[in-house]
Amino acid sequence: MRPRTRRFTTAFAALALAGAALAQPAPVADPQAPMQKLAFLVGEWEGEAWIQMGPERRDTVSQHESVEWRLGGEVLLIQGTGRQGERTVHSALATLAWDPTRQAYSMWTYASGRGTLQPEVEVGDGVLVWSFTVPGGGRRVRYTARLDEQERWIETGETSTDGQTWHPFMAMTLSRK
User: Fold this and answer.
1) pTM, whole model, 2 decimals?
2) Domain segments of the chain: what residues?
């Protein structure tokens, strides 16, 4: 290889490596630290939930939520099952993690028969809120989970057409097993 070509190849390789290094997210000093705000949800939970199925129909289910750490505390795995008697009427799974690239929480939800979503997530002191816009409808949906003063998991689901006025369509109250 000619000296000029060798210098060009070496310079190009150095630039490519530098670019790849810059493209990597800045490492988080402790990737588990942001996730600790969600530790209040970890455990096995049982209780009752209701969902509004129209103006005059409200269904009640026995709800079970299992929340556990994965990947050494970097990911929260949430699995919920609602039953009426022996029949499963609701089955959902979610993963929640800290995204160091965006410096924000990232959530994926999977609901049986309803596909996947990647909702917007807000985490506060003892509260988790996730929301999304219904595809094709413009309607917003948000869920808020928190612990009450009796250490019960209280969750509400609400919908809005204008982002200002919210209407409840579901709620659940769960106790830690």
Assistant:
1) 0.81
2) 31-176
